[in-house]
Design goal:
Its cofactor is Zn(2+). Residues 4-294 form the Hcy-binding domain. Zn(2+) binds at residues 216, 279-280. The protein has 300 residues and is α/β, with parallel strands linked by helices. The protein contains 13 helices and twelve strands. It has helices at residues 7-12, 22-28, 41-45, 47-60, 74-78, 84-101, 114-118, 132-148, 162-171, 196-201, 222-233, 262-271, 284-299; strands at 16-17, 64-66, 106-111, 153-159, 179-183, 185-186, 189-190, 209-215, 237-240, 246-248, 253-255, 273-276. The strands form three sheets. The protein has an eight-stranded parallel beta sheet with strand order 1-12-9-8-5-4-3-2. Strands 6-7 form a two-stranded antiparallel ribbon. A two-stranded antiparallel ribbon has the order 10-11. Helix 11 (222-233) links the parallel strand 8 (209-215) and strand 9. Helix 4 (47-60) packs parallel to helix 6 (84-101), helix 4 (47-60) packs parallel to helix 13 (284-299) and helix 6 crosses helix 8 (132-148). It is globular.
């Protein structure tokens, strides 16, 4: 599966199948993720559960596995009593686990936004009141650890805000690992309200960024975002939306019809998507359907 030209070459020959929601698979297996570290808690408490979840997506046909480091940080692990050396080892272990689950596949090291570490929902709002320089200082140390662990690509994902994107792009400079930049969006704007054309433009001239796109959004928001991303940057596009269901706090339940990425994938690929998967509430069954669809597209 892995090409000699590396991840960028594989994208050019794509489309590639991304995995689905890691937290969804963990919750389906009975693991309690009600924690400030979310799925990253299991890096310390139950790494085998993460390995099992990764393998479920690999069996479903995912060619790229995203690590369990989305909500992991030195600050978050420190609140659990872990020193920097222990925290760094847990961050690196997220890459090792994904690689072990699928040795011949691709591993994307997840780097969530600053708001994810706050665990208060601000990752869906952005505009934290921090400068670009302050956000860069936050992101750089964990990026250094993740890059040194040997992933194929850094997944700068669920980014809500143009300022944070700028900070993350500065923070990856010189690490020697390609990256994708993926925004969380509402319509054709970032969660913080900036136009997507402006948001994607910050990555247009970055040689280290091999793909741009969206994730953790409604499926219907993906099509317009793909077209904007491709037009503004000329880069391959990455998309992995949620199922389309909506969380209802009053009843503490998901409502609405689930829509996996498979039925819409052909249109996204036609418009420039080269990396397609799922995010929240998208499990292995939906990824298996997607893998079959993308295999058929590649055969045409």
């Amino acid at each position: 599966m892995r090409s000699e030209g590396g991840f960028a070459a594989a994208l050019a020959a794509g489309p590639l199948v991304l995995d689905g929601g890691l937290s969804h698979q963990l919750a389906a297996a009975g693991h309690d993720l009600d924690d400030a570290l979310w799925s990253a808690r299991l890096l310390a408490d139950h790494p085998r559960a993460l390995l099992t979840a990764h393998r479920a997506y690999a069996r479903a046909g995912a060619e790229v596995l995203i690590t369990a480091s989305y909500q992991a940080s030195f600050e978050g692990f420190a609140r659990r009593g872990l020193d920097r050396a222990a925290a760094a080892d847990l961050l690196a272990s997220s890459v090792r686990l994904a690689r072990r689950a699928q040795p011949d596949g691709w591993v994307a090291a997840s780097v969530g936004p600053y708001g994810a570490v706050l665990a208060d929902g601000s990752e869906y709002r952005g505009r934290y009141g921090l400068s670009v320089a302050a956000l860069e200082r936050f992101h750089r140390p964990r990026l250094e650890v993740l890059a040194a662990a040997g992933p194929d690509v850094l997944a700068l994902e669920t980014v809500p805000d143009l300022d944070e994107a700028r900070a993350m792009l500065r923070a990856i400079e010189g690490l020697g690992v390609p990256a994708w930049l993926s925004y969380s969006v509402a319509g054709t704007r970032t969660r913080a309200g900036q136009p997507l054309a402006e948001a994607f433009a910050v990555a247009a001239d970055s040689a280290q960024v091999v793909a741009v796109g969206v994730n953790c959004c409604a499926p219907q928001d993906v099509g317009p975002a793909v077209r904007i991303a491709a037009e503004v940057t000329g880069k391959p596009v990455v998309v992995y939306p949620n199922s389309g269901e909506r969380w209802q706090p009053a009843s503490r339940s998901w409502q609405g019809r689930a829509l996996g990425p498979a039925p819409l994938a052909a249109g996204w690929v036609r418009d420039g998507a080269r990396l397609v998967g799922g995010c929240c509430r998208v499990g292995p069954a939906a990824i298996a359907e997607l893998a079959a669809e993308l295999t058929a597209l590649r055969a045409r």
